Amino acid sequence: MSHFAPLIQAWYRQNHRKLPWRETKSAYKIWLSEVIMQQTRVDQGKSYYYKFVENFPTVQDLANADEQEVLRLWQGLGYYSRARNLHTAAKQVVNEFNGVFPDNYKGIKSLKGVGDYTASAIASFAYDLPHAVLDGNAFRVLSRFFNDATPIDTGQGTKVFKAYAEEVLNRENPAEFNQAIMEMGAMVCKPKNPDCENCPLSDSCLSLREGDPKLLPVKSKKVKVTTKYFHYLIYPSKEIQLIKREGKGIWQNMYEFPKLELEERKLKSEVNKMVEDKFDVKLLKKISEEKHILTHQHINATFWEVNEMLHDEKTVKVDLETINDLPLPRLIERFLENNAMLFGSDGVK
């Protein structure tokens, strides 16, 4: 397999995208980019990367930040536990590593929310250490190149493909090699439409020779998806009534409208009765309905106008001028963008 690394690295030098985190050796900035890019596409991810670097130029700045500010900047990316892990890990660097980002795999992996892939990526990109990365793109390239149908979402799959990655790794230049295999997966060895004609590995790719690249990689597990019905209660006023979402689960410590959360669909009369019993207000009319799809949860949200403000001491009241100072789920942010006139404004600023 001695030709694997030279071929993909030569391709990478000619074809790679210029990205800001590829132009730095700062472990902190590389770490930020890796966590952000696990959430989104490159074009959207760049704007989040710039926001975080601008607001938190150093790991100390991030550690000292208020969690609400971190969540607000992360808003729209989803998986908010990763933002909280990012914040916790920054505090670890300050408290356990004297404010200096760890410079070895073991130290990096000890940070909250950092697994093998992220630790390997940072170790190789920032410190040129010979650790092979194994993200979704690398899994795809390796499973097709070796024509191996071992499910990648199993312990055995991780072991098998980690061995492949270590076998082909260029230990003299691990940073460029790791960038190259991930870029190959993103630009050429794509999930549904692999561009085999322009792949530098096409002459030696076993799945192209012996099988069908599009059938790989294999996953064994299907994500169990639950369906929830959220009934949001809104009293149109210049003061917008919100409540902080507490406890574990989605949107922890973020703000949304007061709501009734149900496991199944109900008639309006049934919902109205439950709302009256719980909140002592009445539904007047339906404002809108939205579907919000998360990895493990499908949310059917109905936004209702109610006859008065809720009498709940846990709620906070804000106006459209200051609402963006609070971390909001994208579902709520989108509703406000589309229905700002309810609150005496033409749009969210």
UniProtKB/TrEMBL annotation:
UniProt keyword 4Fe-4S present: yes
Database matches in SMART domains: ENDO3c, FES
Gene3D superfamilies, alphabetized: Helix-hairpin-Helix base-excision DNA repair enzymes (C-terminal), Hypothetical protein, domain 2, Nucleoside Triphosphate Pyrophosphohydrolase
SUPFAM superfamilies for this protein: DNA-glycosylase, Nudix
CDD domains: ENDO3c, NUDIX_DNA_Glycosylase_C-MutY
Gene Ontology molecular function: 4 iron, 4 sulfur cluster binding; 8-oxo-7,8-dihydroguanine DNA N-glycosylase activity; adenine/guanine mispair binding; metal ion binding; oxidized purine DNA binding; purine-specific mismatch base pair DNA N-glycosylase activity
Catalytic activity: Hydrolyzes free adenine bases from 7,8-dihydro-8-oxoguanine:adenine mismatched double-stranded DNA, leaving an apurinic site
Record's cofactor remark: Binds 1 [4Fe-4S] cluster.
Cofactor: [4Fe-4S] cluster
Pfam families: EndIII_4Fe-2S, HHH, HhH-GPD, NUDIX_4
EC category name: hydrolase
Highest taxon of the lineage: Bacteria
Kinase found in the keyword field: no
PANTHER family on file: ADENINE DNA GLYCOSYLASE
Protein name, entry field: Adenine DNA glycosylase
